[in-house]
């Protein structure tokens, strides 16, 4: 019996300071740990960041998602964690990624505008690709106001 | 001849005749037990049988000592603990592993209260220490001769009750566990986190070199505990208020805890979701507030309250159409206590519900004697809405006074609409069905969300006095905008706090329909009303 799948999406403010190299080390560290734990926990998803923010999608069994989010929530390397969505899903959008990673912010605002007009922030109706776009755009937005 | 004494003449030959270990154990004067991995008693010596009432083999160790909890998961070494029976007899115990998951428990009656060992007394749900255990830790820490001092953080969860009420106790319990975990995570090893009951926690922080150390932890607790929880698919947001007390030179455990509580009280008063560090004046403040509260509780019975009435002027024809009832407290010693000084307190302790009821009844009774059609406006606190008796109170006040419902105007503030809006809206609708008018008071001071105006068709909006008092362009623009909005929604607009002829002239130009203020009439005692109404029209 497989537990039903859930997806959690959040974004947060990056608290890692220092130069690019230092930042890269932190991100590498987060990714390595994430991939290791997530593989164990049957969690897949994607993480992205730009200078100001992280955004992440986690998908997997609810219990595991909750436990992982509880750890992530308390991580000093970020703060102001805002939960955007938590809902059950029929299938994974990132079946092959223990933690996929998108690190650069290439403005894709027009594409985002199309998505948000048709589905608002209803993450569950977006494909994995669209979630990327959405999250990337959120981080870009945040960067603009920061 | 000391050869006769058996203890001094041990020779090697006698060791051969040594009694069996079994016999020795059986003749020990203190209890010895052996346990298996589950804590079941597999051996008990005679002293143990005698001490614990007979046949104990086969019982679980927790049947004898409900609080039995080995200090650590490290079962490779002997550990000492204090165990207390159901009848509160304390034993100093040593638990020694025998290998192959068996243990021997050596028990000696505790020598007295001054022992430094701490009785494990753990909360079933969270596994945290309970009050007694916390107090022993605190006492121990204070008495330790140590240059660094300790701090105590008293915690109270904000909105926990709501989680319990809406999502059920199961989720509430899960949440408490998570909070316990986060607290433990925020603290350093050696710090003690305890649950005092319900949603009350307390933290003992060691090695506080300077106040900033304690403030740092308090801020971290507020931050961490306030972060979103995800439990069984529910997203939960709560907050925590923290009161911090530092160890002073002569403080006792109880004093520190009390100071922390005082600071917690201040943190909650300051709006929750924050910490406050204890300051010397806080007990004084609380003391004063307590006295005021005692007086306030008596005030109703001693008939120290009075209502005064401030005229409400209709600008279309410059006639007085009624009065707003204003509460006065005449205290025999304090004199006239302004509402600002006691309403907040009455709301804090719930007295406002009783007081508000008196106000409604009295205002209706007095208004019933006024000339035909005069309305009476009565302020109602958000808490009266929550109390669920408002509708009943209003209906019965109208009935007893024979005042027709159209002559009563209930004034509510935005605060009433902030939480539990559906219930409030229901009550408002029911009140309106009685025929009572409802107005929105102090508009412009709080959130002033326009959506409030859309949610309920108020009969009237009262614009706060600050917009009337300041003659700057912003205030005027706001006044005009709200008046315009109200007019188009079919609501009357009252400008409050009109004090000068110049202000009155300005307000006339802004589509306000009514005014209230010193210029058009000060609050007056009820017996002044008839002569006030009889005098010739004063304004223009
Ligand atoms: C932005 C961000 C994303 C993270 N994502 C994950 C994740 O997907 N899975 C995970 O196990 N840990 C993640 N972490 C790390 C956790 O916060 C935590 O450090 C880690 O789970 C601890 O694992 P451990 O208990 O196995 O040492 C993330 C941290 C940050 C700052």
Automatic annotation (TrEMBL), chain A:
Residues 5-100 form the BLUF domain. Transmembrane segments: none annotated. InterPro entries: Acylphosphatase-like_dom_sf (IPR036046), BLUF_domain (IPR007024). This is BLUF domain-containing protein.
Automatic annotation (TrEMBL), chain B:
Residues 289-537 form the EAL domain. Gene3D superfamilies: 3.30.70.270, EAL domain (3.20.20.450), PAS domain (3.30.450.20). Residues 17-53 form the PAS domain. Pfam families: EAL, GGDEF, PAS_8. InterPro entries: Biofilm_reg_signaling (IPR052155), EAL_dom (IPR001633), EAL_sf (IPR035919), GGDEF_dom (IPR000160), Nucleotide_cyclase (IPR029787), PAS (IPR000014), PAS-like_dom_sf (IPR035965), Rev_trsase/Diguanyl_cyclase (IPR043128). Residues 148-280 form the GGDEF domain. SMART domains: EAL (SM00052), GGDEF (SM00267). PROSITE patterns: EAL, GGDEF, PAS. This is EAL domain-containing protein.
């Amino acid at each position: 019996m497989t537990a039903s799948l859930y997806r959690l999406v959040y974004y947060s403010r990056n608290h890692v300071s220092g130069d690019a190299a230092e930042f890269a080390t932190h991100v590498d560290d987060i990714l390595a740990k994430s991939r290791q734990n997530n593989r164990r926990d049957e969690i897949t998803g994607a993480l992205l960041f730009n200078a100001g923010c992280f955004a992440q999608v986690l998908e997997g069994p609810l219990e595991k998602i909750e436990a992982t989010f509880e750890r992530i929530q308390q991580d000093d390397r970020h703060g102001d964690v805002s939960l955007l969505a938590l809902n059950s899903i029929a299938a994974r959008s990132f079946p092959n990624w223990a933690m996929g990673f998108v690190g650069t912010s290439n403005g894709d605002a027009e594409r985002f505008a199309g998505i948000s007009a048709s589905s608002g922030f209803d993450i569950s109706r977006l494909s994995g690709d669209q979630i990327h776009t959405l999250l990337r755009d959120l981080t870009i937005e945040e960067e603009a106001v920061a | 001849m000391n050869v006769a004494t058996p203890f001094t003449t041990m020779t090697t030959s006698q060791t051969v005749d040594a009694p069996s270990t079994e016999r020795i154990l059986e003749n020990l004067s203190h209890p010895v037990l052996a346990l298996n991995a589950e804590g079941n008693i597999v051996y008990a010596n005679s002293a143990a049988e005698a001490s614990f009432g007979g046949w104990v083999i086969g019982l679980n160790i927790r049947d004898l000592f409900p609080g039995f909890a080995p200090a650590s998961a490290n079962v490779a070494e002997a550990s000492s603990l204090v165990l207390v029976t159901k009848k509160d007899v304390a034993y100093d115990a040593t638990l020694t592993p025998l290998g192959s998951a068996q243990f021997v428990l050596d028990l000696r009656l505790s020598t007295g209260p001054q022992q430094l060992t701490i009785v494990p007394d753990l909360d079933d749900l969270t596994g945290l220490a309970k009050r007694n255990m916390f107090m022993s830790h605190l006492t121990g820490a204070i008495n330790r001769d140590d240059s660094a001092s300790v701090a105590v953080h008293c915690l109270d969860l904000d909105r926990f009750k709501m989680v319990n009420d809406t999502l059920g106790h199961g989720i509430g319990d899960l949440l408490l566990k998570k909070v316990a975990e986060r607290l433990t995570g925020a603290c350093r090893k050696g710090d003690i986190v305890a649950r005092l009951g319900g949603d009350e926690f307390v933290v003992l922080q060691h090695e506080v070199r300077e106040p900033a150390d304690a403030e740092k932890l308090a801020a971290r607790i507020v931050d961490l505990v306030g972060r979103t929880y995800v439990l069984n698919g529910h997203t939960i947001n709560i907050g925590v208020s923290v009161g911090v007390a530092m160890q002073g030179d002569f403080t006792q455990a109880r004093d520190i805890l009390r100071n922390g509580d005082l600071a917690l009280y201040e943190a909650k008063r300051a709006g929750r979701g924050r910490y406050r560090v204890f300051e010397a004046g806080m007990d004084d403040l609380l003391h004063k507030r307590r006295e005021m509260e005692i007086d306030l509780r008596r005030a109703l019975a001693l008939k120290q309250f009075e209502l005064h009435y401030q005229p409400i002027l209709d600008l279309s024809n410059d006639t007085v159409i009624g009065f707003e009832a204003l509460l006065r407290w005449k205290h025999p010693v304090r004199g006239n206590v302004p509402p600002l000084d006691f309403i907040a307190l009455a709301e804090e302790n719930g007295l406002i519900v009783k007081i508000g009821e008196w106000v409604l009844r009295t205002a209706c009774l007095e208004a019933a004697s006024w000339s035909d059609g005069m309305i009476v406006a009565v302020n109602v606190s958000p808490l009266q809405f929550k109390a669920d008796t408002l509708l009943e109170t209003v209906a019965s006040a109208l009935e007893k006074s024979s005042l027709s419902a159209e002559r009563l105007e209930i004034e509510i503030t935005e605060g009433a609409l902030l939480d539990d809006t559906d219930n409030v809206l229901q009550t408002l609708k029911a009140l309106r069905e009685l025929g009572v008018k409802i107005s929105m008071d102090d508009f412009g001071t709080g959130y002033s969300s326009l959506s409030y105006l859309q949610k309920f068709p108020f009969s009237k909006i009262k614009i706060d006095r600050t917009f009337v008092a300041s003659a700057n362009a912003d205030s005027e623009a706001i006044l005009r905008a709200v008046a315009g909005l109200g007019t188009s929604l079919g609501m009357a607009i009252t400008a409050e706090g009109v004090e000068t002829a110049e202000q009155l002239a300005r307000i006339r130009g802004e589509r306000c329909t009514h005014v209230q203020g010193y210029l058009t009439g000060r609050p007056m005692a009820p017996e002044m009303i008839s002569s006030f109404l009889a005098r010739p029209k004063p304004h223009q």
